[in-house]
Target: DUF1735 domain-containing protein
Amino acid sequence: MKMLKYSFGLFLSALVFLSSCRDFVEPNIPYSDFDTAAYLRTISRTSTSFNFFDLANSKFALTLEAVDAEDGATVETVEIRVRHRRLIPGVGLEYIPAIGTDDVLVRTLQASDFQPNSESRFLRTSFEIPALEAIQALGLTPADIEGADAFEFRLVLNDKFGRVFTDSNADANVKGSPFYASPFFYNVAVICPSDLGGTYEFEQSNMESIYGSCAGTITGTTTWNPVASTPGAYTITDGTFGFWDCYGDSWGSGSVRINDACGALSMTGADKYGASYSMTVVSVDANNLVFQWLNSDGETGLVTVKSNDGKPWPQLR
Model:
């Protein structure tokens, strides 16, 4: 019995000792090349997209936390590098600079940029890279950028021991685990926000079909309902904008959409008879959007949709 009590006492002492020493053990960070290293935990992704219509005010912005055995003090510099990517239909991905060459240095964070914070013991930094700064670093201009392009930002951490940490030598746990949250690599997409939902007044003229024309004009309202699963897509209440009234027919169960792809409008879908729909934008200004719709049955009309409640039409094409 005395031996059991003695052994239990030693075990309890060991637990107390280990618990008291936890804060002094170097973190075992799972890198492929090093037993103990450093990583950059992503605390906040303040902005990770560029607005195609407002590149001048778009930015890539993060808050990072440097985690290492010295609470972030081993960080010497962090390079922020960038590459441009575009998917070309029928061809594949195009990169600037090309894959196999170095990506471009945009900015270098210094050790002094990492400062104490009130939420953890590790040093933190926040930075913003304006879209125009990244574009210029790549030797491009805003005119070279298209909707759905992407900018690949990569971080390279250099520490005071001469070691380098980035996405190519970080363990999968570091890059993918929510605990580490340190991908060292961030895709920043060029997006085209669309806000065309609403009810609009319209006027239609030049209505023709193989069944006969419709003289004069038709006026009414059209409602464009955003499709939750497809950003930039809107179902419309009547793909003929009242043209079938001339025949004594009604729109009924037809399903036609207007799609906004970075300001380029198109019409898709079919009516209750199975005829497909398309459109061509004739002109657009702040007050009026003018387009010609056409279906595969040869029906067509020229529609002018007026801006809604004083809200001007955006730049469309």
